[in-house]
Design brief:
Oligomer: single chain
Number of strands: 28
Radius of gyration: 27 Å
Largest sheet: 6 strands, mixed
Number of helices: 11
Structural class: alpha+beta
Distance between the termini: 47 Å
Shape: globular
């Protein structure tokens, strides 16, 4: 019985998606819930599973096609067809479809005519993407490729800046950058054509070989890139050996877009990762496990030397215009300082118990969970719990009233080389310490790599900022408007502290102490509420008695 496979709706505001890759070809057997194809939307990349077990009889939409949700993209025949009907050259007839539909499954690369020995496909326009529902323009801050450079599909092509995030925009196809239409520094509206990519020469293949056509095109683009001199912007770490890279280009390694993105961000050759998924497919768990093992196996991972002073920076002359991000930060800080009557409350918290726990458990924690154990997840846990008890600190002043937020969306300030950004851990009150640790590390890493989505950098209800990371005792931060409070985390230092036992005897001990500065909107929050909140945070941290996972 034929079953239609449709483009799913991946969220309420998403109405279309791009088919980036077919994981099966016409005639292949497929299991129920086995990944069938990959899609990309403006929110997420995802693998779409087969709704039934059977044979993929027809592919209606080739790779690279943008289709509306609920559009039929393929047909799976549930009951096994006879072997003679499962020949790749005749998939449509075996499914009982009209013969005129068969070529759709066979010609996944119609730009390569059968009559030509070689052909350069027509140029593909690269447009300024829409990075969120409320964003209508962006500034090109840097081109990562220049005209004439080869580029791979999904390889970063240029960097943009909006009023929400700075992000890298990937190439939509493999080929050669034939034209750059918009220079660096220009601000353009969404959907404006900013560049053109021409296809690499592709050798024509017989009917029924779309996968081989795509592989040949990718291989030629890879070879061109290897022959060209690498640009300084692309050299961030020593290159992996050439042989495994060649294996990736052939398409023999099976993985999801998320796995490939993690590999690229960590300069990892997927040929070195053992896949445990279907047909050896590399899963997210596989690559995270491999990265954790690689980190623990390295006795001395490369770290910047603290003894080597940073080279002096070149000081520009005259008036230098602000970057878009710096301008937005300036506007927001002035708005917050002008609008909100700030008050501050400073507490010193004994972190000795947590410091000892962290020192004892950090290696095994990282091995179990694939993420480093820092102090931030402990603090985030204590803060989220206290905000549930004192919701006024998780509120906002709005139109003369008070907006109480139903969830704790924790903003985590991340310092960047070019500014500051506050990615958000949503619904922090319902997350375990392990989940918080993973979310914070992931958001910080992607913020620095310019991989954040706009909705991941907005909507916070309370912010944490770690001014102590640079050695400071404490900071007095400006509130992240329209929030009502912000907590600055100071440096952790060992100090002599007077301890009093149950009988009133005093002793001096060396303790790990940390200062916290709570900035609050005095229109909403009084000193008493601030004090109760901070005492709750202090008690949780000083008497930590829960499992860390």
């Amino acid at each position: 019985m034929p079953t239609d496979v449709v483009m799913p709706q991946m969220g309420e505001s998403i109405f279309e998606g791009t088919i980036t890759r077919w994981l099966k070809k016409a005639g292949d057997a497929v299991e129920r819930d086995e990944p069938l194809f990959e899609i990309s939307t403006d929110k997420v990349d995802a693998e779409i599973p087969s709704p039934v077990a059977g044979v993929l009889a027809e592919i209606k939409m080739p790779e690279g096609t943008i289709v509306q949700v609920n559009t039929v993209v393929a047909v799976v025949v549930e009951s096994k067809a006879p072997e003679s009907s499962r020949e790749p050259a005749r998939p449509a007839k075996s499914a009982g479809n009209p013969p005129t539909e068969a070529p759709k499954a066979q010609l996944a690369a119609p730009q390569v005519p059968q009559s030509a020995a070689t052909q350069v496909p027509q140029g593909i326009d690269v447009v300024m993407p829409q990075m969120g529902e409320s964003i209508f323009e962006g500034t090109i801050i840097r081109w990562l490729k220049k005209a004439g450079d080869p580029v791979q599909k999904d390889e970063p092509l240029f960097e943009i800046s909006t009023d929400k995030v700075d992000a890298e925009v990937p190439a939509p196809v493999s080929g050669v950058v034939t034209e750059i239409k918009v220079p660096e520094g220009a601000t353009v509206e969404i959907n404006t054509v900013v560049a053109v990519i021409g296809g690499a020469p592709a050798v024509a293949q017989p009917d029924g070989a779309p996968a081989q056509q795509a592989q040949a095109q990718d291989s030629l683009a890879t070879a061109a890139r290897a022959a060209a001199s690498p640009s300084p912007a692309s050299i961030t770490a020593p290159a992996e050996p050439a042989a495994p890279e060649a294996a990736i280009g052939t398409g023999r390694i099976r993985s999801s877009p998320l796995v490939r993105r993690i590999a690229k961000e960590n300069n990892l050759d997927l040929g070195r990762v053992m896949g445990t998924g279907s047909d050896g497919r590399i899963t997210k768990e596989d690559i995270l496990r491999h990265l954790a093992e690689r980190a623990s196996a390295s006795a001395a991972p490369p770290q910047p030397s603290s003894k080597t002073p940073a080279p002096p920076q070149v000081v520009p002359e005259g008036l230098v215009p602000m970057s878009r991000m710096r301008s937005i930060i300036a506007q927001r800080m002035v708005e917050s300082a002008r609008t909100i009557p700030h008050a501050y409350s400073i507490y010193k918290i004994d972190m000795t118990r947590i410091a000892r726990l962290r020192e004892r458990e950090k290696k095994s924690f990282e091995q179990r969970n694939g993420v480093k154990l820092t102090y931030m997840p402990f603090i985030a846990t204590a803060v989220a719990q206290a905000l549930g008890r004192y919701p006024i600190l998780n509120a906002s002043f709005e139109n003369g009233g008070i907006r109480f937020h139903q969830n704790v969306h924790l903003g985590i300030a991340v310092a960047l080389e070019w500014g500051l950004i506050v990615p958000v851990v949503t619904k922090a009150e319902g997350r375990s310490l392990v989940e918080l640790a993973r979310a914070i590390a992931d958001l910080a890493e992607r913020a620095r790599a310019k991989k954040l989505k706009p909705d991941e950098a907005s909507g916070s209800t309370f912010t944490l900022t770690n001014s102590g990371a640079f050695g400071g005792e404490y900071g007095m931060p400006i509130i992240n408007h329209p929030e009502a409070a912000i907590l600055a985390i100071g440096g952790l230092h060992k100090e002599p502290v007077v301890l009093t036992d149950a009988e009133g005897n005093d002793t001096i001990a060396i303790r790990s102490m940390q200062q916290f500065c709570l900035g609050l909107d005095h229109r909403l929050i009084d000193g008493a509420d601030a004090g109760k909140f901070m005492l709750d945070v202090q008690k949780t941290l000083e008497t930590w008695d829960r499992a860390i996972g």
